[in-house]
Amino acid sequence: MTSREKYKLNVFESLKKLVFSAGPDIVMVTIFGLTLTVLMIIFGGKLTFVQSSIILPLSLLAILIIASFLAHLIGYFMGREMGWKDLVTQSLIMVRDWSPVSLIAFIYENFHDLTDLIRPIIVDSTLRRIDEWIFGIEPTLVLQKITTPWLTEYMTFVYALYFGYPVLILGIVYYKKQFTLFREMVLAMTLCFYLGLLGYMSVPAIGPRYFMDGEFTVPLSGIWLTAKAAAAWNHFESIKRDCFPSLHTAISSIGLIYLWRIRKLYKGGYTVLYVCIPLVVSLWFSTLYLRYHWTIDVFAGWALAFICAYTAPFFTKWYYKNKLGTAPMISLDFSKSPAQPGPENKN
Fold first, then answer.
1. pTM over 0.90
2. Tens digit of pLDDT for each residue in 16-41?
3. Which whole-number Å values give the CA distances from 346 to 9, 30, 40, 94, 179, in the listed order?
4. Nearest CA-CA partner of 26 in 183, 193, 194, 255
5. Can you give the residue ranges of every domain in the chain?
6. Beta strands in 221-315 (DSSP E)
7. Virtual CA dihedral for 292, 296, 298, 300, nearest 10 degrees?
8. CA 173 to CA 20: how far, in whole Å?
9. How far apart are CA 141 and CA 172, in angstroms?
10. How many CA atoms lie within 13 A of 303 on its CB side?
11. Strand, coil or helix: what is 246?
């Protein structure tokens, strides 16, 4: 082997070591972060470091870190065997574990300008034709027949729960100390967000609410929540051409899949699952009722969720098998396990 070949081999081994020390969630965030950077350079986009939609995940990360710090601090003063070094280490580990969630929001935010720059012409007319080809009529127009203020209020409520499912599931898994499963779920959601963003850029659409504004004869008037939620959503929303695929559908579907898989992981798992099923199904329906999405967007969201929910566990299993030499339990294993598994060491 020549010195040049040895050098290439050493570089490859160094990169491999770096990749397998980061974790599958960090690897995926890095890939899409680099993709964003390249697209920004090519199309002349600008980075947005502070936007309202990134405040929520950053605030959540800060709350979790503070809560963890206080919990360990209380334990320290109660005489538990934990020094300041351990305290700082635990806090840094939490930052590492939860930071990809915040990075998702940051990168998602910065695709804002790219949706206009890459393909400026919307394709709503095509999506509408697909809906009409499938159903013979545009479903959002038919739903006007059942529109009432109370139903609109309920639809608004379940639509807003979209933010809650990832936080709920990740929080449960992290509390149960299933760290590999936690990273698998972050990977699934990260993959979903970025494939969804690619959909936004390649199939830009504004949805029936805006594209068919003059055709609706029944207003979406609620009791109290609807107007406030619509104003808040417009304030937080950065990507205006964000219909295909429906990420509300995709993320909530991934949440439901994982709630099923981890139902045996914690006491009350079945109860949480059965409570969430009608809420998630209602959320899917709300995307059409509230006129945010075409029906084909919802179909695409289901397909995206299926892809991500099954790609993430197999990639995670392959990743840790190559890193540790043994395959860890993945979400598919949890769904088959007859008993609750014990806490897991961090890798």
1. no
2. 565 556 677 787 788 877 887 788 78
3. 29, 21, 35, 11, 6
4. 183
5. 120-336
6. none
7. -130
8. 22
9. 40
10. 11
11. coil
